[in-house]
Amino acid sequence: MKPFFKALLLGTLVIAVVGFFPFLSWGLPYKNEILISFLLSLVNAIVGYVLVLKNHGAEHNTFMKNVYGGMIIRMAFVLGFSLYMTMNGYLQTIPFFMSLMVFYVVHQWTEISSWLKVLPSRKVQVS
């Protein structure tokens, strides 16, 4: 689990370094949108990583139900939260969704690449 958090931190630092000057140029008024999209994407990636690792040794049906069911619930939460916050005027739509897209892509890439490194070392239960 520790390499996963290191990779998340590294990916976040890369985004921060690349986006520092654009943030200073136009992003300062949208710091809430950027922060909330970062946190939403980060929590989503951590929950997904934990779900995959905890359910890897389980039976096939249990694995599918927990991992893919959790994926549907997480996607519904991200969509519902995003729509609620933007449609009620708490967040500006374009900066929020643009930053969410950037953070989501990087965090999902980190999540998937991290558990692909861990899973081959685990035994798969064959029924």
Describe the structure.
The mean pLDDT is 87. The chain is built from 4 helices and no strands. It is flat and about 50 Å long. The protein has a domain at 32-107. Helices cover 83% and strands 0% of the residues. α1 packs antiparallel against α2, α1 (2-27) packs antiparallel against α4 and α2 packs antiparallel against α3 (60-87). With 127 residues, the protein is mainly α. It starts with a helix and ends in a 9-residue tail after the last helix. 17% of the residues are buried. It has helices at 2-27, 31-55, 60-87, 93-118.
Distance between the termini: 27 Å
Spans with pLDDT under 50 lasting ≥5 residues? Answer: none
How many strands, which pairing sense, and closed or not: the largest β-sheet? Answer: none
What average pLDDT do the residues reach? 87
Question: Topology of this protein?
Answer:
Layout: H1 2-27, H2 31-55, H3 60-87, H4 93-118
Helix pairs in contact: 1-2, 1-4, 2-3, 2-4
What is the structure about, briefly put?
This protein has 127 residues and is mainly α.
Spell out the key features of this protein.
single chain; 4 helices; 83% helix; mainly alpha; 127 residues
